[in-house]
Inverse folding.
């Protein structure tokens, strides 16, 4: 049984737009919430873009602890307001690209994603590391062709290749 989102062209447009924003932010896009399993049209479509903690701090000028503290005390700094407005702007851009009116976009640091969402159902759409993206493609290829050499699926740094078979 397919969900409403899988049955429409909006799914691919939504995924493309979210991955474009994630790439622009050097983040990773995820679909979360009721759109993952809704058989009828959900109230909104929840998309999360997760940034590495250090990149989040560099981009928004707040450590994760400062960001969480401002949320608790309901006193936002200019940096937090800039994060909010950027999140809104990208949410509108994604909504316009896919024709979906109700996009709930969240741009989060990785530690918050791990604490809140990682145990919940989600669908990963794009990765912040090109090597992770290549790994995903190789895994899909290996599922189609079990004879694909397993060493292609393991990450290695330059010094780790001694004694290993080269894969081309």
């Amino acid at each position: 049984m397919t969900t409403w989102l899988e049955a429409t062209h909006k799914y691919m447009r939504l995924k493309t737009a979210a991955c474009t924003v994630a790439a622009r932010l050097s983040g990773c896009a995820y679909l979360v919430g009721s759109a993952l399993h809704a058989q009828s049209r959900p109230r909104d479509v929840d998309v999360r873009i997760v940034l590495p903690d250090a990149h989040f701090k560099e981009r928004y000028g707040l450590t994760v602890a400062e960001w969480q503290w401002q949320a608790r005390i309901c006193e936002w700094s200019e940096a937090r307001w800039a994060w909010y407005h950027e999140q809104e702007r990208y949410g509108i851009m994604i909504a316009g690209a896919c024709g979906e009116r109700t996009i709930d976009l969240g741009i989060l640091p990785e530690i918050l994603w791990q604490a809140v969402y990682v145990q919940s159902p989600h669908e990963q759409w794009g990765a912040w590391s090109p090597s992770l993206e290549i790994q995903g493609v190789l895994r899909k290829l290996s599922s189609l062709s079990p004879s694909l050499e397993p060493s292609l699926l393991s990450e290695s740094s330059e010094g780790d290749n001694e004694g290993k078979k080269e894969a081309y």
Remarks:
- The domain at 10-126 is CATH 3.30.460 (Beta Polymerase; domain 2).
- The CA atoms of residues 73 and 158 lie 47 Å apart.
